[in-house]
């Protein structure tokens, strides 16, 4: 993460998306005992780090947030979530420009991309040495562990061992709700579908997304079609789109972005976080997004992301941080950690 001081961070908080602002106005809003020269130095530093762009000269100089600032400005998430939900200063409505803002934007640094390419090569090398029997066993293990962790994130109380018994032997755990078993079994069905039809997910469209969602929510009393009304999200003031026409438009832009993005890891990260952000269905959005994020990787013969070691509370916070601030820093950190975990723990001799 780029090192910036508290005053520079405050400057980034002062500026709003699609707004031009001059140094004097920034100084006034800072309300700190500093000079215009100090503020100008701070602004130059933020321009150097590509958080801001500079337009004009002399007294007419204006500054504007660049995409990097919106998505990756430093946020102390622990302090952020210490603030009560209703007192957090957030982006309350869906950012309709987000797909344009993310187009041709490099999510991963050069160093991070190099790490991902090494992981991908390592996985492919490991995979090529495995027998068909071992590959089938590893796919089964990935299916069990992703089904378990994805369900735990949604509040499912099955343990990993109970999940294994359910998915391998059909034995439901005693004292658990029927809906919990159904949720886990639906994950398995969705992942079975992905592994058996991986070529299908080299491109995505609304029909494929709805197909995955239908599998993941079968027999759970959840409507399969795109929602027509507003849904609320627990723990945040953020409000997703409430107009079906806008939801359809967002899904189409989402699919275009995924299909036009060349980097498979960026495709996966976008699939997970943006489908969840759109919230196109009345329920099952995050579950569908995690399956889709895996599907685009599997379609390109790369490693899956079972998310086994992820802390579910941290995952939820990372997702909320994106909803409320459009900030990807924490979610990208989790994504990268899980990429390393996957290659180190699956499809190995």
Give the biggest sheet: 2 strands, antiparallel
Tally of distinct domains: 2
Please give the CATH architecture of the largest domain: Orthogonal Bundle
Q: What is the average per-residue confidence, as pLDDT, rounded to a whole number?
A: 94
Reported by name, the CATH topology of the largest domain is Fic-like fold
How big a fraction of the residues is strand? under 5%
What's the name of the CATH homologous superfamily of the largest domain? Fido-like domain
Strand arrangement across the biggest beta sheet: 1-2
Structural class: mainly alpha
Work out the radius of gyration: 22 Å
Number of helices: 16
C-alpha termini separation = 35 Å
Low-confidence region ranges: none
- The tally of beta strands, per DSSP, is 2
What's the CATH C level of the largest domain?
Mainly Alpha
Shape: globular
What does this structure look like?
With 349 residues, this protein is mainly α. The protein has 2 domains: 6-74, Winged helix-like DNA-binding domain superfamily/Winged helix DNA-binding domain (Arc Repressor Mutant, subunit A); 98-345, Fic-like fold (Orthogonal Bundle), CATH 1.10.3290. The chain contains 16 helices and 2 strands. The chain has helices at residues 6-14, 23-30, 36-48, 67-72, 77-80, 98-102, 110-128, 132-153, 160-169, 178-196, 206-216, 244-260, 264-278, 285-299, 312-325, 329-345, and strands at residues 52-55, 62-65. The protein has a two-stranded antiparallel ribbon. Strand 1 and strand 2 form a beta hairpin. Helix 10 (178-196) packs parallel to helix 14 and helix 12 (244-260) packs antiparallel against helix 13 (264-278). The longest helix has 22 residues, at 132-153. It is globular. The mean pLDDT is 94.
